[in-house]
Amino acid sequence: xMVKPRTPSVYQRNAFAPALLAAAVLxxxxxxxxxxxxxxxxxxxxIFAVIVAWFAIQARHWWWVPxxxxxxxxxxxxxxxxxxxxxxxxxxxxxxxVFLVAGAMIKVRRP
Length: 111
Fold this sequence. Notes:
The protein is mainly alpha-helical. The chain is built from four helices and two strands. Pfam families: DUF6804 (PF20619). The chain crosses the membrane at residues 12-31, 37-57, 62-81, 87-106.
């Protein structure tokens, strides 16, 4: 039996791992909102938003940069906005979905 050699991928998705981690934290965020752990959520989301924005710049996917700059500002832990209520709770999984879509779409050609 002859094994066909595997063809290496032409693209790499550098933003996928940070986007996946941020999405996991954002899906857990509604459970953590009323406690002190939500500050950690703000840090994780803001940092990963900047990282994904950087990978978008490297991949020349400019349209993602304002989206992740907005996420980094809205979820910033240094000067947090006093968001509450169902809209803020619903924003968590929406941002998680944005991270997942961007992580899958942002790609660069391998050298």
